Amino acid sequence: MMRDTLENWQSEFLQLIWQVGGFSFLLYIGSLQSKEGDERKEAKLDLILKQINPDEAEELIKNLDLKYPRK
């Protein structure tokens, strides 16, 4: 009886570790569909800059592109 209990406990423990590890991995990787691409982020930032300061937006975007080239 003690051996069965120990085997059951070991099985449950390993299953729990596997579930926690798998969940952590999936949480770290995330869904590819839910991740936003760099180009979309850059387009949003460009639009925000143009809305905030339309006069200097193009120059600011050009300077940012020189300092941090687009991929």
Automatic annotation (TrEMBL):
Record key words, sorted: Membrane, Transmembrane, Transmembrane helix
Organism: Methanosarcina horonobensis HB-1 = JCM 15518
Ranges annotated as spanning the membrane: 13-32
Protein name: Uncharacterized protein
Alphabetical list of InterPro entries matching this protein: DUF6766 (IPR046657)
